Amino acid sequence: QKEVEQDPGPLSVPEGAIVSLNCTYSNSAFQYFMWYRQYSRKGPELLMYTYSSGNKEDGRFTAQVDKSSKYISLFIRDSQPSDSATYLCAMSRDAGGTSYGKLTFGQGTILTVHP
Amino acid sequence: NAGVTQTPKFQVLKTGQSMTLQCAQDMNHEYMSWYRQDPGMGLRLIHYSVGAGITDQGEVPNGYNVSRSTTEDFPLRLLSAAPSQTSVYFCASSSPTRVYFGPGTRLTVT
User: Fold this and answer.
1) What is the DSSP-derived secondary structure letter of residue B73?
2) For residues A42 and A74, is the Cβ–Cβ distance under 8 A?
3) Dihedral in degrees, nearest 10, Cα atoms A7, A13, A17, A20
4) CB of B96 within 8 Å of any CB in chain A?
5) Taking CB atoms and an 8 Å cut-off, how many pairs form between chains A and B?
6) B43/A95 touch (CB, cutoff 8 Å), yes or no
7) Cα–Cα distance between A100 and B68 in angstroms, integer?
8) 8 A C-beta contact, residue A110 and residue A9
9) How many Å is the maximal CA-CA distance in chain B?
């Protein structure tokens, strides 16, 4: 069983929809949680970074962490065609791990937002 | 400030050939790492480095070598390429709270 599970989709939504992306994990040692966005044939870029359980908001994006359920989510409000990309969740056991680039990734969810 | 750069962008190798994937960063980060991305697998850590002269293995190190002689460069070597190494390779450079990825190298081994 993979340490981090993510539904690969693909997910297709109309412009303006609220998108919910999710990951579950099995290792309770994970303490730092990230969401990356990856456009086609590009490298991943960091969208959100959270440490504790709860919500973190940045513009149209909200990251949610529930450590008791080992479940993290990314919500995208008012989705735009420019949000079409692969979204990857990632986690690390400690701040040092994050620093070293020692991340464990989910499989990625392919999202398409159509006009 | 170019960030993380990788060369080449594309490469085709025959089984048994060797090659080096180049990676450089201009952000003066101590920490660098290499990942491979395969369909349905996400990104998996191959090797990482916490500074010049210091490297360690990640989740999938077999078949790959690394060295870190300078802060800026972190090359990945395939000594004898195998079809199972067909993948997209990403180099990354890290600050304390953020990992920056390069644009990737698409490698095909026939």
Assistant:
1) B
2) no
3) 0
4) yes
5) 67
6) no
7) 14
8) yes
9) 39
Question: What is d(CA A95, CA B96) in angstroms, rounded to the nearest whole number?
Answer: 7
Three-class SS of residue A70? Answer: coil
Distance from CA of B63 to the nearest CA of A (A): 19
**How many Cα atoms within 13 Å fall on the side-chain side of residue A6?**
32
Whether residue B44 contacts residue B35, with contact meaning beta carbons closer than 8 Å, is answered with yes
- pLDDT reported for residue A96: 63
Nearest to B87 by CA among B28, B18, B40, B50: B40
Name which of A46-60, B16-30, B75-89 the model is least confident about: A46-60
| No. of helices (H) and no. of strands (E), chain B | 0, 11
Which of B40, B48, B99 lies closest to A46 in CB terms? B99
Q: Decide if pLDDT at A99 tops 80.
A: no
Identify all chain A residues contacting B66, using CB atoms and an 8 Å cutoff. none
Show the tokens assigned to A7.
């539904």
At residue A33 the predicted structure's pLDDT band, cuts being 50, 70 and 90, is very high
Contacts (Cβ under 8 Å, ≥6 apart) of A74: A20, A21, A22, A35, A47, A48, A61, A62, A63, A64, A87, A89
